[in-house]
Amino acid sequence: FVMNVNQFPAASTRPHYIAGHAKPEAGYSGDVTPSLLVSFYNIPSTQIVNSNITNSLFEAIGQSFSPTDLASYQSKMGVNPDPITNVIGPNQPQACDSNYANCFEANLDVQQITAIANGADTTYWSIDANDQDPFTTWIVAVAGDASPPLVHSMSYGAVESDMPASALTQFNTEAMKLCTRGVSIVVSSGDDGAMNYEACSYGQCTINPSWPATCPYVTAVGATQGPETDQTEIACQSNQGGLITSGGGFSTTYPQPSYQSAAVSSYLSSGVTFPASNEYNSGNRAYPDVSMMGHNYPVVDGGQVYIGSGTSASAPVFAAALTLINDQLASANMPSVGFVNPTLYQSSAINDITSGENNCCAGQTNPTCCPSGFTATTGFDAVTGLGSVNVGDRKSTRLNSSHRRNL
């Protein structure tokens, strides 16, 4: 017996990305640039026109970003200069010069969100590397903010089954309350398919959902590949050259929310092959909700350009899209979009992704692939969710405002 202990430290937190290779300076053919995102996802404008349009990035495990790298990225990509407005918690830009891994995740996040929602008031919200439960620490702090940023992007996760029940419950409760305040929380779905990084590291082919992507009050974002090389948009898969595999599946803890029940029911009766029934709970929360491009993003880190792939890229891109919608709503004197999931599951502004599966882990060469996983199909699936989002579809904006009023 261990006395006077009610919670053990959680398993290690991991950013959802895998770094690729250094990028030659000559051009960005085959890469996901801001201009490609704008054209493919029909983004009318990336320039924020209203003041007080806010978003934020969650960072942990000692990651830092470099303002110098951010300015360099924006210059290379033809993006208007847009520095981070607020820094909460630790940040050591000098660490980027000694080892790109010290800053790769954070630099990726800040560079993507400021490129797509250019001019927003962006907060870099960093949790100390020694914190045993950065997710709870972060969401309690956000909930305690009298005026929190309206959109939050989180590119980190843990194995849901490794988390103590108290952390799962508290995060869910605080996220629910933030939704009622008009706050949107976007979380990457993971880069190791249905198995998750811990299982793949030990070669154990066990389905392990990624948390907090499984929380029903966040929008979980998967990854796609294809448009960067003028190909059809499909699920990002390591065994198809995608470096990572879009995470997805069903929660082991959270019941299925009503907003996705019809979509999930259709998926379960679609006729595609599923894992054995004892490997997942089809009555629980399914994820991701949507996906965006996640393969081959240029990242300026320590003054050099690297290429990265992952849901760590697709999550801040989708968060930036919500920030742009908030800007449009503000121009119409409407409240922020807030909890967007009910809108998404009724929206027609979706590019359906019908090809791919998530039985493989991340890996550049010979990735581990398991017998079980989920398969993409028409409509919702547990690989890419509903699909990618046509940001410029104005029907989506009208639905957003309607759902926000109803909430």
**Cα distance spanning the termini:** 46 Å
Percent range for helical residues? 25-40%
| Average pLDDT for all residues | 91
- The total strand number stands at 18
Q: How is the biggest beta sheet arranged? A: 8 strands, mixed
Element string (H = helix, E = strand): EEHEHEHHEHEEHEHEEEEHEEEEHHEEH
State the shape: globular
Q: In what range is the share of β-strand residues? A: 15-25%
Continuous helix count: 11
Uncertain parts:
1-8, 396-407
- How large is the radius of gyration? 19 Å
Structural class: alpha/beta
Structure report:
The chain has helices at residues 34-40, 67-76, 95-98, 104-116, 134-143, 165-180, 196-201, 261-268, 311-331, 341-344, 394-406, and strands at 14-15, 18-22, 54-59, 86-88, 121-126, 151-154, 156-159, 184-188, 210-211, 219-225, 234-235, 249-255, 284-287, 290-293, 297-301, 304-309, 350-351, 388-389. With 407 residues, the chain is of the alpha/beta class. The strands form 5 sheets. Strands 3, 4, 5, 6, 8, 10, 11 and 14 form an 8-stranded mixed β-sheet that branches. A 3-stranded antiparallel β-sheet has the order 1-7-9. Helix 5 packs parallel to helix 6. The protein is globular and about 50 Å long. The N and C termini lie far apart (46 Å).
